[in-house]
Amino acid sequence: MPSEPQFKYYLQHKKNLLSKNSNIWSLPLPMNRKKSQKADGISVTYGDYFYAIRSFLEKDEFKSITSAISQQLNQNIKPEEIKEIRIYLEKHGEFYHPARIETYINRSRILFVLNVAISNTGKNYIKKEFEILNKLNNEFSFSFIPKVYSQGKIGIKNKDFEISMFLGEWFEGFNEFHISQNKHKQDKTDSSIKIVVWDHEKGNFFLSPDETLELYSRVAMILTCYYNAETFEQIFPWHHAAGDFVIKLQNNNMELKLITVRQYASMFRHTSGTEKNNKDSTVYFMLEGMLVFFLNLSIRNRLDRLDGVGEIVWSDNIAVEGTLKGFLKGLSKISSKNLIPDALATDFINYISCFTKTDLLELCNSIVNTYNPMAPEISVIRQNLKNHVDILFSTIKNL
């Protein structure tokens, strides 16, 4: 009889092997980043969590994991070839409790992420997200978001509910980052607000100003690459506070990935048929839509929570220059792939240059008025919006 993979269970980045005899095994899983113990009246133990993941991976003779490995290695893999599967509980997110899945075949280690949704809100998101990631990966040739392989539901033993999961691509060597206080700054001209990268292997570190500029630029570039200028469809909402983007720095080379896409939809109504048939009107509406997309991006790119869990914070002004650079680079990329007309990027620069500072401030205020008035970031945005537009206007003029 073919041998089955051996399963092992771990907490994030800890070497200690867990088992049903471990103290933590029967404790309730924190239901979000703020560590409250229940959501929707649901209580799931660490043991429930690990066994549910194991059941998902074992289902249908290990079909999901063998299919995913086969796609990664571009060869047909059978269950008996998998010697070991290690499950690491990565973190407690607002919607998911993602696990890192390490599989071992011969001398190779193949990694995946398994997003696990326990709360009702998380379950509502996870099915939709699986479909969106599939759609975007099929429609765009970029590789800034994870590939997805399979999804399903697993019932919790002795409990009358199911949890939902999907298996996706793991971005190795990438880490979460957040705005933090630079308490040990040596240079008084250096900012007290900096980006800290949570590197659990080599230790946390702050980004330099140049690296920070590049980070904000890459965030804007990635989101612009997936923007549909004709339908106004875009990735939104997204949040730095939730750790939606991750970073990898190696040999002075920076990479960024977007690890979650909760929604992909238009933020505007479509134009009428008459307008669509008018070329000038079509270009105008595309430019108008791009302007709103860019201004919204410039605001959202500046928001975070201090160290990921603290108060809402507003980034340094360097984020404005980074956002504009990244947006224009994204336009160049989608233009090169014929996703927008070649001249549209140039047209946009001419278009936005015609707006006065007052015009931009009014537009930004109109955009902020569409946000949820109860959202905790609203007061921070309104407090900083005028200065934001001042910097934005100057940055545009310097193009």
Describe this structure in words.
The protein has 399 residues and is α+β, with helices and mostly antiparallel strands. The protein folds into 2 domains: 6-169, no CATH class; 175-397. The protein has helices at residues 46-73, 120-139, 209-225, 273-277, 279-300, 318-336, 344-353, 357-369, 378-397; strands at 6-11, 84-89, 99-105, 108-117, 148-155, 162-169, 175-181, 193-197, 205-206, 233-235, 245-250, 253-258, 264-266, 303-305, 312-314. The strands form 4 sheets. A 6-stranded mixed sheet has the order 1-2-3-4-6-5. α8 (357-369) packs antiparallel against α9. The longest helix is centred in the N-terminal third of the chain and has 28 residues, at 46-73. It is globular. The relative contact order is 0.09.
Binned, the helix content reads 25-40%
Radius of gyration: 23 Å
The count of helical stretches stands at: 9
| SSE succession | EHEEEHEEEEEHEEEEHHEEHHHH
- Model regions low in confidence, pLDDT < 50 over at least 5 residues: 272-276
Main beta-sheet annotation: 6 strands, mixed
Number of strands: 15
Measure the end-to-end span.
68 Å
Indicate the overall shape: globular
